[in-house]
User: Which sequence fits this backbone?
């Protein structure tokens, strides 16, 4: 899944926002049950959640971003409160020359509150959704796609991998990945050493030696468990891999 180097910053365009103040910041929440069960080492995923953020300027232009809120199940409620009560008052009535300036202003005011709250992640996730909306606005203002705003030669194709193999039905999903022509997959681990080893081994057997196999513990492992995961390494590493490091991410949660 190697990617060619992206164009240098010198090749990118100058990014500006319209000369208009922020008029509204809106949230829209979409929730849907997955058609197939999605297991995680810490809790099942009962709903896919999409929190869309719309930033509207006084000139009527609108940009749209998204904030990740799948976990916990009430995260979308927190995200709405953080955006409406924390972010919107800092944006409304102000204009910004570019998205980076707005992001720095939000981080300067809200990052300390996130640390005091003990929830720096949700604060950054809320800011990131607004940041995406402002970049969308900048691209619309430039009359181009966001990809071309970021690069004069954006990639037209990207490699993909099959996600969420396991903890059950690994063989069936791996077969589907083979049928789709996928050459990389991610196996869910963190369900016990025997289950993890068997599932990664099943994926390797079905996809073959050249496939890339990643293992995702979803922060289930302490550092000691991370060390005991070493039997997974030779199974997950592809024959053509240029690195001998294990393809496991995210690896652990500090103990």
Assistant:
């Amino acid at each position: 899944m190697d990617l060619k180097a992206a164009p240098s910053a010198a090749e990118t365009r100058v990014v500006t926002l319209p000369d208009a103040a922020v008029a509204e910041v809106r949230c829209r929440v979409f929730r849907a049950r997955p058609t197939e069960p999605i297991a995680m080492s810490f809790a099942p995923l009962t709903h896919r959640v999409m929190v869309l953020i719309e930033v509207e300027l006084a000139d009527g232009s609108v940009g749209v971003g998204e904030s990740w809120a799948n976990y916990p199940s009430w995260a979308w409620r927190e995200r709405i409160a953080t955006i409406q009560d924390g972010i919107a008052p800092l944006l409304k009535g102000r204009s910004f020359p570019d998205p980076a300036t707005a992001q720095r202003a939000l981080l300067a005011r809200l990052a300390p509150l996130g640390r005091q709250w003990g929830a720096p992640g949700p604060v950054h996730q809320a800011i990131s959704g607004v940041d995406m909306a402002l970049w969308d606005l900048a691209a619309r203002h430039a009359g181009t796609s966001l990809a071309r705003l970021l690069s004069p030669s954006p990639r037209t194709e990207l490699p993909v991998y099959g996600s969420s193999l396991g903890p059950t039905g690994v063989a069936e999903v791996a077969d589907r990945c083979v049928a789709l022509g996928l050459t990389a997959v991610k196996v869910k681990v963190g369900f016990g050493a025997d289950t993890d080893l068997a599932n990664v081994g099943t994926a390797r057997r079905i996809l073959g030696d050249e496939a890339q196999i990643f293992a995702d513990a979803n922060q289930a492992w302490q550092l000691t468990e991370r060390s005991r995961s070493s039997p997974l390494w030779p199974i997950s590493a592809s024959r053509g891999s240029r690195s001998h490091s294990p393809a496991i991410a995210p690896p652990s949660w500090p103990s």
Q: What stands out?
A: Residues 63 and 137 are 4 Å apart (CA to CA). Residues 11-150 form a domain with the Enolase-like; domain 1 fold (CATH 3.30.390.10). The chain is about 40% helix and 15% strand. The radius of gyration is 21 Å.
